[in-house]
Each structure stands twice: as C-alpha cells, then as structure tokens.
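User: Second chain of the day. Same drill as before.
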Amino acid sequence: MMAQEENMSAQEDRHPAGGAETTTAREAPPRPNAMRARAEARDNSADSILRIPVVMQVVLGSATMPVANLMKLGRGQVVALDHRVGEPVDIVVNGRVIARGEVVVVDDDTSRFGVSLTEIVGPGVSLEN
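Assistant: Same format as last time:
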C-alpha cells in the first residue's frame, strides 16, 4: 500500500506532456498561524505608533518686538499679530504646518474655540515658511 501511494505521488509529478518522471520540490504553503502572528505583530506595532500623543497647536499669528517694548506690556494692552481677521490659521504638529483652517466656536460648548480645516498642507512646510 505504501508503494502505491509513492507511485501515485510520482505520477502526479510527471511532466504534463508525458515526459520522464521528474520530482519537484513543492514549497509548503505558509502556515495560517504564522501568517496571522506576523499580521498581528504588524498591527500591534502600528497601533503602538498610532497611540503616541502629539501636541497640535493652532497659530493665530505672531509678533516681533524689542525686549524693551515687551517689558512695557501691561494688562489690557493689545499686541497686533501678523495675521488679519478672517485669514486662515496654521495647524502645527511638531513644528510642521499640517493644515490651515478657520477659527470657529464649538457647537456643543460656546465657551470654546475650535478650528474648521480648510486645507491640508503637503509635506515639507515648516512653521518658518
């Protein structure tokens, strides 16, 4: 019976045109458990990266002034910024502008501001640009 199984196996490996018997090394298909383990490790790695907290800042504008003027500032004084009312604000993560948007009042809590994104900025734009 063992000889019959070997003979059948050899016949399966014959050349399709009926040529001489050739045995070919068949690769074992990847084990589902190994593939699943690799996928889970990759997912866990991605999940770990996606859970890293980053600080997002919304930049309304900036101002440059001498230290002497800075020291004279007092309560109630207004510092003029380089952005004008209605201009988009920059959304910055790790020193890079990632988007621009408009300042809005949050619907659920009218005592808070939010930003409505109007533009996603491509790579390579830094806060200094």
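Residues 56-120 form a domain with the Surface presentation of antigens (SPOA) fold (CATH 2.30.330.10).

User: Great, on to the next one.
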